[in-house]
Amino acid sequence: MTARLTAVRAGALTTVQDAGRRGHAHLGVPRSGALDAHAARLANRLAGNDPDAALLETTLTGCALRPDRAVTVVVGGAPCPVTVDRRPAAWGAPVRVPAGAVLDVGAVTAGVRSYVAVAGGIAVEPVLGSRSTDLLSGLGPAPLRDGDVLPVGVPARQAPPVAAPWPGPPAELLLPVRFGPRADWFTPAALRTFTAATFRVSPHSNRIGLRTEGPALHRASTGELPSEGMVLGAVQVPPDGRPVVFLHDHPTTGGYPVIAVVDESALAAAAQAAVGTPVRFTPG
User: Fold this and answer.
1) Cβ atoms of residues 31 and 17 within 8 Å
2) d(CA 150, CA 124)
3) Long-range pairs for 134-138: beta carbons < 8 A, 24 or more residues apart
């Protein structure tokens, strides 16, 4: 019989995530999955899991869990204090949590999202090939609530004996972009502003999109754009003129013009950019 985890404290927004649901955009289903894919894979590797195993993604305030059997856990991603029954434990390295003890993943000290990988993975039922929570479509398990119980899978192998280096959250977010497909809907001045100005991460950001504050980008065309397909990393400009970078729970279609697309390799850093972090878009 495998372990189960009870949520003693669910936190502000804790969700189950894995590598996501690729290949279903034509059905209107976003990819979803861990926003900081690098941190999620590293936490899983240190826990002895497959890199794409399901784990927990916390937001700002962490969470607290009680296993009914002893488990090995790795907390990584955004730095935060970790305790087991109120005793300090390692962050970014495997920790043994006895049966009935409380693992507390505290509020982040930098960044936004921490990852909790349990040896064996979170074994909720997959939907369309993924265990990820999708906040936009509602697929996958609901965000964690106090008292929820999560099943744990069978550990596959022994976890590595040493920790690994973790990248820190960005002090400034540099997002390489390729212009298009609707860059011609903006004035030449707006295109210059887009790559020359410094924006900041808005408090209205979420798993759907990283919203920015800063100078407005003015359109050359004021017409209506029919809804068209949206990709991960698309930089959409709504009527207020402030760019929005689509993240993993983004809609698969949209009617606001996309001025550019961010290289996917930069989105892990975007997942850890706290409110107020300076943002610059750089032509790729």
Assistant:
1) no
2) 7
3) 134/21, 134/29, 134/30, 134/32, 134/249, 135/15, 135/206, 135/207, 135/208, 135/249, 136/30, 136/208, 136/249, 136/250, 136/251, 137/28, 137/29, 137/30, 137/249
CB atoms within 10 A of CB 12: 12
Return the pLDDT at 284.
Answer: 76
Residue 1 above 80 pLDDT? no
Position 163 confidence tier, pLDDT thresholds 50, 70, 90: low
Instruction: Report the mean per-residue pLDDT for the chain.
Output: 94
- pLDDT of 111 reads 97
31's tokens: 């990819």
Structure tokens at 115: 């990852």
Token look-up 């693992």 returns 103
Render pLDDT for 52-87 as a digit per residue (tens, 0 to 9).
Answer: 999 999 999 999 999 999 999 999 999 999 999 999
